[in-house]
Amino acid sequence: MKKSILAVVIGGSFVVIMVFFLIILLPIIPVSEKYSMSVDPIIIQDEMGTETHVAIRNTGTNALTNIVVEYGGATKPDVIPILNPGEKVSLSPPDGSSLNEVRVTTDQGINVTKEYRTPASISFVGNSGFGG
């Protein structure tokens, strides 16, 4: 009889501890949406001129299709046919873009409009890219 009570107490304690850790740790575990993306338009203006690029990453669990990137002004938008989960594309706005904001839409109903940002630290390595 004493062994069965001890087994119930140990088993119950184990269940309580597991439930406690699930409740505490569950918000930490990232939950990815089916269709999601991040858009990061960057502009750097200095004595050498203006450098711009737009980074688009598929942060969802499914592929995004027909991603249309509009730069504003009278420029033709870029179209990315497919962007798989985790994949990232970096684009350069064409001449004539307004360089105020970027609008990105997909077949899956995602619609993101973001203003260009200037990185906090600007460190160039020759002409090879951006720091930050």
UniProtKB/TrEMBL annotation:
Keyword Transmembrane helix attributed: yes
Keyword field: Membrane, Transmembrane, Transmembrane helix
Organism superkingdom: Archaea
Sequence intervals crossing the membrane: 6-29
Protein name (Swiss-Prot/TrEMBL): CARDB domain-containing protein
